[in-house]
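Progress against Task 2.4 (sequence-to-structure conversion) is shown through the following example record, which the project officer requested during the mid-term review.
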Amino acid sequence: MKLSFNTKAELFKHLKDNKSLLVAEKKATLKQADAISYGVPVTCPNGEAVKSESFDAEDLSTIKAEVVINTTNILDSHGDVHMKGIWKKSLSEKKLLYLLQEHEMKFDKVITDELKASVKKYTWAELGFKNFEGTTEALVFDAVINADRNEYMFEQYVKGRVKNHSVGMQYVNIILCINSDERYYAEEKANYDKYIKEVVNKEDAEALGYFWAVTEAKVIEGSAVLRGSNYATPTLSVTETKDIEADVITSTEPLISTQIKQGLDYNYLFTNLKLK
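Structure tokens generated for the chain above:
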């Protein structure tokens, strides 16, 4: 279903009038990376992707990879801003997680289930975003990847080609934030004023005029993707395992994908909202 709006005022009214339905739809749907197009215009400030060094994969059978599955405090192409603390409850409960190829929950698309998921604090500069100030909470997978599990993706990691990741998740707590001074949006405006200061790509959020603050979500899986809805999801390092010890083979600057700024095209799960 595709809905068109001539003004932001029309869009905001739709969001407010249908807030309960939109929240229910989000909670009922597994959030993943956008497969083709980006709904919300967010721009990677780094420009071109940082390229990693590759290494000889001959005779390698096992590697360790440290990958960022998600980061907080950044507006993504779903119109969401994941807030710090979003994964705390889920990680305390979740026992089995997968690193998948492009969100496909199939045996031949599993990269590994030998992993430890944790939240790590980084400055944006440490992740390669030198134009962003402050810190983020990164959902990180420290994974053991065997060549015989998914040979193709094993090679992609070894050659430094995996630049983005994405979290497969279920929403638990979502808050609508709208930048409008009309009395009708008093609650949403208060939310906006509360959370906008925590958004690192604030200009994108201000141009959009609204966003969803996600304060809690359940981790279902993490995936290697060509382009994540959150572009701050690089591969941090790839290491060769030799018996007990692991020698660092690839440890480069994060592999940050380029996002192309597009027109105001807002996607909502089951509704495709377009602002003319």
